[in-house]
Amino acid sequence: MKLSKRHIAKTITWRIIGTLDTFLLSWFISGNIELGSQIAFMELITKMVLYYLHERIWFKSKIKSSNKRHILKTFSWRAVGTVDTFVLGWIVTGNPLIGLKIGGAEVVTKMLLYFVHEKFWYRIDFGLDKRKKRQELKDLKSGV
C-alpha cells in the first residue's frame, strides 16, 4: 500500500482534534485527569492506525456525491471510533460503564467535528495533484 501525504495529513489533523475531544470527555466523565490523559494517549496510537486505514478504504470508493460520501464516512468512522474508545475506556478505568459513557458522548461530539473536518479537506487540493492538474486544464480551456 502506497503512503499518501494527503491521507497522512488528514490523519494527523483529525487526530489532534479527536484526541483533545477524547481527553476532555474522558476527564469530565471519569472525574480524573490522569485517566483522561491515559485514555487519550492510548487512543492517539490506535486511532492513527485505524483512521489511516479507513481513509485508504474510502479513497477507493466510487461514491461521487460529496454530501452522501461525507455522511457515510462520518457514520462508518464513528462506528470504528466508538468501539475503540469504549474498549480503551474500559481497559484504562476497569469499568465498562465509564467506557460506554465516554464512547456514547463521543458519538455526538465526534460526528459533528468529523463532518466539519471532512468538508474542510474536501475543499482543499493538498495531496491531490491530479485534481489540481484537471482544474488547471479546465481553467486554461475556459480562459480563466
Automatic annotation (TrEMBL):
Enumerate the InterPro entries for this protein: DUF2061_membrane
Look up keyword Transmembrane helix and say if it applies.
yes
From the broadest rank down, the organism's phylogenetic lineage runs:
Bacteria, Pseudomonadati, Bacteroidota, Flavobacteriia, Flavobacteriales
Where would I find the DUF2061 domain in this sequence? 8-58, 71-121
Ranges in a coiled coil? none
- Transmembrane regions listed in the UniProt entry: 12-29, 35-54, 75-92
Keywords, sorted A to Z: Membrane, Transmembrane, Transmembrane helix
Question: Under which name does UniProt file this protein?
Answer: Putative membrane protein
Any Pfam family hit: DUF2061
Task: Give the species.
Answer: Winogradskyella arenosi
